[in-house]
Amino acid sequence: MTEGARFFCADAARARGDALGGTAPYGRVWVLIEYRRGWPVNGFDGLDLDPEIKALVFSAAQASRARVLLVRRPGRRRPDGSGRWAVLRHDDAGALRQQWGSWRLDQDLAQIMNALQSPGERDGPPVVLVCAHGLHDACCAVRGRPVARVLSERWPDLVWECTHVGGDRFAANVIVVPDGVYYGGLDAASSLTVVEEHLAGRIRADHLRGFTTLYPPQQAAVVAVLKRFGPAGQHDYTVVGTVRGEDAWNVKVSGGPSHGRALDVVVRARRTPQLRLTCRGPEESSALVYEVVSVREG
């Protein structure tokens, strides 16, 4: 980067070749709140809502280990009128559940607390979220909004922009929920391919950050398997065991399109040197990277 040039964390990450696999935050429950006005830098926490209602929603989400995201449809925003909210859940049995409602007054958001205690409806269409939280990180707006626009033109009922999802340097980030699949490093063309494949039941490895139902070493292992054997359904491969040694994990993966494959994947973690990982501040920090050492058929 030339002296005086503006720093963009996603450009720097691509130039370094930062690994995507193993970078999806763990989680099974998401709370979406449609908010069409400007998003504060800290998302839901920064909204000027009734403090009691905000505290109740936050406590209920925390108890359910749910992530709260503000969402809006891409394009020109109409701030007036009622908005929608949703609780999306990938339950322990693998079922995908959703519950939707609407809100106009702050007090209407109290419905979210009851929804977090309810299993919700099965078999709803997936929700495609594109991080476009520019006030949190410039790359999320610069790279995210064009992706949100092109995806919404193709799938207008599925696509929303959302607040910070983690991993700013991997912008544009796309998350499919309640499936719980993170993709990163996307642009307009690649996002269309990745989402089309995902909706057809094929997970591609080239932009996959990981499945949120797995922990980072397991995510990295599954990404490596998909790279070796090609795209597959989200549940075609199953992590059946994970053993941590002194300096590595041995992740056992079974399944695949033939449903008979047994794989041992060795994954190591290492710390990167101090790097500037976000656009917002000059501070440098170290990232934890999961590297696949080997993939062996058992």
Question: Mind explaining what this structure looks like?
Answer:
The chain is α+β, with helices and mostly antiparallel strands and 298 residues long. The protein has a domain at 29-182. 23% of the residues lie in helices and 29% in strands. It is built from 6 helices and 14 strands. It has helices at 9-16, 51-63, 111-116, 138-154, 188-199, 216-229, and strands spanning 29-34, 66-72, 83-90, 96-103, 121-122, 127-131, 159-162, 174-177, 181-183, 208-211, 237-244, 249-255, 261-271, 288-297. The strands form 2 sheets. It has a 10-stranded mixed beta sheet. Strands 11-12-13-14 form a 4-stranded antiparallel beta sheet, covered by helices on one side. α4 crosses α5 (188-199). The protein is globular, with a radius of gyration of 19 Å. The mean pLDDT is 92.
Our count of helices gives 6
How many strand units?
Answer: 14
Low-confidence stretches: none
Mean pLDDT: 92
Estimate percent helicity. Answer: 10-25%
| N-to-C series of helices and strands | HEHEEEHEEHEEEHEHEEEE
**Which value, in Å, is the CA radius of gyration?**
19 Å
Task: Indicate the overall shape.
Answer: globular
The rounded distance between the terminal residues' Cα atoms is 46 Å
- Strand-pairing-aware structural class: alpha+beta
Strand order of the largest sheet: 5-4-3-1-2-7-6-8-9-10
Q: Main β-sheet, in a few words? A: 10 strands, mixed
Strand content: 25-35%
